[in-house]
């Protein structure tokens, strides 16, 4: 006779759907943000022309400037709802609250640290012409320096969103209860338990 636990959780389909949507959206946000810093920016930095780099960065930025905040608010709202619905001070409720707070903190984080860099880069994309082969400014105020700084801030955003996603995944897994199950293999005339 062996006893093996199995996992069960009787969440309604609506809550399961909310979990899946929140987890998928937050993981997507983490991956998308990480990809911009880790994959796209190094390719953009190969541009020798500051004008070209500024315009390419602007294209990358414009594609994400509405998507990322919407996903952040959406995921945060779902996790806040799941935390509210759970019993107070349970481990899943605390973890969902943490995840919701982390994802929502991306908005002020981006506004405070990223927006000044975004404004400078948008100005450079608007004012530099394709005739500007060499940039007048050097160092951190150059287009290359600003894009590098933007990638660093964006990478921090990726870490925050990844921690939020992992915390929510942990909360979802934490909800399952282990229920002992027994399996018996009977032999002989009494194998059916009669």
Which terms would index this structure?
single chain, 194 residues, mainly alpha, two-stranded antiparallel sheet, 2 strands, 70% helix, disordered N terminus
Structure description:
The structure is a single chain. With 194 residues, the chain is mostly helical. It has one domain. It contains five helices and two strands, in the order E-H-H-H-H-H-E. A two-stranded antiparallel sheet has the order 1-2. The longest helix has 37 residues, at 91-127. 28% of the residues are buried. InterPro entries: Anthrone_oxy. Keywords: Membrane, Transmembrane, Transmembrane helix. Its main location: membrane.
Mean pLDDT: 88
Task: Record the strand order, biggest sheet.
Answer: 1-2
What's the helix-strand series?
EHHHHHE
Instruction: Give the distance, in angstroms, between the N- and C-terminal Cα atoms.
Output: 17 Å
What ranges have pLDDT less than 50 throughout 5 or more consecutive residues?
1-8
Subcellular location: Membrane
Main location: membrane
Pfam families: Anthrone_oxy
Protein name: DUF1772-domain-containing protein
Summarize it.
The protein contains five helices and two strands, in the order βαααααβ. By secondary structure, it is mostly helical.
Topology, element by element:
Blueprint lengths: L1 E7 L4 H32 L5 H15 L2 H19 L5 H37 L15 H32 L2 E7 L11
Antiparallel strand pairs: 1-2
Helix pairs in contact: 1-2, 1-3, 1-5, 2-4, 3-4, 4-5
Pfam families: Anthrone_oxy
Protein name: DUF1772-domain-containing protein
Family: Belongs to the anthrone oxygenase family.
């Amino acid at each position: 006779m062996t006893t093996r636990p199995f996992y069960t959780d009787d969440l309604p389909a609506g809550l399961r759907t909310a979990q899946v949507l929140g987890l998928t959206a937050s993981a997507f946000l983490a991956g998308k943000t990480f990809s911009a810093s880790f994959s796209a920016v190094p390719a953009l930095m190969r541009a020798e022309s500051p004008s070209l780099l500024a315009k390419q960065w602007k294209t990358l930025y414009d594609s994400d400037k509405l998507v990322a905040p919407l996903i952040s608010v959406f995921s945060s709202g779902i996790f806040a709802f799941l935390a509210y619905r759970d019993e107070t001070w349970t481990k899943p409720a605390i973890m969902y609250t943490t995840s919701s707070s982390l994802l929502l903190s991306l908005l002020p984080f981006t506004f405070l640290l990223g927006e000044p860099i975004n404004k400078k880069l948008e100005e450079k994309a608007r004012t530099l012409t394709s005739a500007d082969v060499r940039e007048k400014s050097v160092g951190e105020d150059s287009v290359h320096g600003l894009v590098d700084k933007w990638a660093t801030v964006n990478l921090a955003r990726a870490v925050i969103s990844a921690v939020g996603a992992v915390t929510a995944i942990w909360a979802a897994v934490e909800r399952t209860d282990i229920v002992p199950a027994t399996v018996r293999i009977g032999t002989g005339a009494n194998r059916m338990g009669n």
